[in-house]
Amino acid sequence: EASQRAAGASWREKEGAVGEIGGVRSGREERRSHVSLTAAHVRSAAAAAAGMGDSGGSVVSVDVERISFGGKLCKAAASARLLLLVAVIVLLLPSADARRRPVHLRLYMHDIIGGPEQTAIHLIRNAGPPHKSLKGAYFGDTMAIDDLVTDGPGIDSGSVGRAQGTYMLSSQHEEVLVAAVTVALTDGPYSGSTFVIAGRVGIYDDKSELAIVGGTGQLRRAAGYVLWRMAKVVSEVYIVVELIVHMSVPANAAAPSNGSSLAIE
Question: Cα separation of 219 and 196, whole Å?
Fold first, then answer.
């Protein structure tokens, strides 16, 4: 009987030891799995940073291996490896931006709000409360435009496209308009392409900065900004707005034709 009790105790000890070994193995596999998942995320991030989704961009493949020491996962070494890879990704991000080609244009938008050559009309007028500082204007007043775009400030300058969209008096107190305008180019090196302008225009500011939030054709995925400036007051109903455009497009976008007066690069 004593022998049986001793054998039972020995068996329980072995069973406990097996359980501990199983727990260690389970924990080790869990940590390895965690590192493997982290590695997959790092590889995806590195590939995205290197390629930026362009069909012509190169993709850098980063391999994160399981790190073991003496049969056990070395967590410190794994953390160091991952930190190193994160640093590599950060360094890759500027190189992705460097694979963009700059585009600089100077355009003139002819905004005519009355008369036989009218290009802008009120969609909403006097619907909101009177503006606090603009006499005769009302909060929410909205204009739709289809303005001629030329390569010079004169009406007889070369026509290169149309500026189509809206601008709205969207502040009750400030003298600002919010504009959303698509510039459709019909002549010059980017004929058939468009870019989209969005932002605030200070009515009495010397110039305003608006964002370029996209484009099509040769200007697909355009990004940058526009300096919007009053160039000329022709009459009470006719103004000319200068648009100085600074944007960039992916380097593998179709190159423009040469010999245009639009480029100010």
Answer: 10
